[in-house]
Structure formats: C-alpha cells, structure tokens
Amino acid sequence: MTTTGMARAWAITRKDGVVLGFTDHDGELRFAGVVFRPRAGLTAQAVVQGAGLSVDNTEAVGALSDEAITERDILAGRWDGAELRQWDVDWQAPDQHRLVFRGHLGEVSRSGGAFKAELRGLAEALNRPMGRVFHPRCSAVLGDGACKVDLTRPGLTGEGHVVSVEGGRLRLGGLEGFSDRWFERGMLRLTSGAAEGLSGHVKNDRALPQGQREVDLWTQTGILPAPGDRVKLIAGCDKAAETCRLKFNNYLNFRGFPHLPQEDWLMAPGKESGRSEEILRKFREGGGIVEV
C-alpha cells in the first residue's frame, strides 16, 4: 500500500441492518462486501488512538442527502449507536486495505444541512460501571433476562392509536381495561406512520373515559406522531418489591434488596440507649459498681 494511493473508507451499520459505505476518494470503491461511495461527502478527522486501555475517539462530518443520511433518520434516532468501521485502502488495489478503527456512533448533531457524529472506540465500554448495586429497589429492566417477566402476558401491554398530539403529551384511544397510571414509568412505542420504530419513556399516564388515555413522555420523540398512528404501551415498573409482587407476580426474580436498613441507620439512636443512660446515672450517683 503506497502513501500516494491511499484513501480512507467508512462502513456504517445501523441497528436495523442498513449498511452504508463512504470514502474520501473521488471514485467508487468495493471491498469487504460493501460499496463505498464518494458523493455522500463524508469526512473524518484523524483517529485518536492511545496505548493500553485509553479511549479511542474521532469525529465524522458529512452532508445530509436523501440517498445516504437524511435529517429525518437522524431526528428519528436511527443512527444512534450504529457500528462504524474505518479502513486505510489503496484505491488502485482496494483488496489492499487495513482496518484502523472500529466502534460506534455517539452523539449525532445536525446544522445547516450537515451532520456531525462523535465516533467512540471499543474501549468506550470500559468507562461503564460494572457489578451489582446493593439497593432496596430492583436493578433489572422490566422483561430482561434478570427480570424474566413475559411482556406478552395479557394485561401487560396495550395497543391503541393516537387521537391528538401536543408536544410530549399524547391523547390515545382504544386502550380499554387498564387502570389509571398502569403504564406510568413504562414505554410507548410507535408502530406505524412516519415515526414508526421510535419509542419514549412514559412520565405520566391518566385513564380517561371511553378507553382514552392521556400520556406524557419524559422526552418527545424526534419525529412527532400524527393522529391515527398506531402505538403500543408497555406496563410501567417503579422497581419496588411490592410492585413486583402484586403487579407482576414476579417476586422470586426481584433483583433488589428490600430489607436493607435505611441510609441513616448508623446515626439513629439504638434501642438500648435509654438503658445505657440509666446505668451510667446510677454508677455516678453510687460511686461504685452498679448491678445490670
């Protein structure tokens, strides 16, 4: 591989399986089963790589285009967490290439018809805290391998449609049979329309007459749903032991420690403190040994 014939190429794999290839060369390149196109206009800064366990990082900048990376997809979060690979390649002989970076897209921002994406190397995972946290509330995510709740059980999910939208507040219909606040702290997923595939965490959930509900999301979705779009609601869990036992009948898999003492228990007066003070008073008054 010669320096004068070297180009850079990137392959981005979204979580939904879509793969796109880009290159800073002025012609199309093909290798590793990917077609790398030049007209998308993606460029990247030099990869910052360190020895040992330090975190590798870089940035990619490109133009928004209908054929490659669209503003709608960025708003919808479809590029969040996408896998990225970068090669140095001899454009005269594309089979001669060397992988120099592998990681994921971090924060993706857009401005003035362009986007900027932070690239996070494989060492980024080493920054995450590991191990269990000893806390009265559950550490599992509802429905995951530790929780083991089957979310397909009747009563844990509901499907309806959007009646109206006002920012992060949605009026939903077709959700009869669920009590007030049943989906609070749960998830809302959009299953049709322009925002299909997006989801949000439920902040407030209020039951209304005729099977309607008023749902507030903590953060509104990148693309707002429209009236008539289909939605799926998943029951919420506040991580408390009582909720696990009564709402989900899943106490055997509870991943918290509900019998831990309160955080201020060390500073709380002991039950025998009164008896100890009485003994000390009698000792001082008698000037000698006190029978206890």
TrEMBL record:
Protein name per Swiss-Prot or TrEMBL: Bacteriophage phiJL001 Gp84 C-terminal domain-containing protein
Bacteriophage phiJL001 Gp84 C-terminal domain segment(s): 181-264
UniProt-listed InterPro entries: Phage_phiJL001_Gp84, Phage_phiJL001_Gp84_C
A Pfam family of this chain: Phage_phiJL001_Gp84_N
Organism name: Paracoccus jeotgali
Highest taxon of source: Bacteria
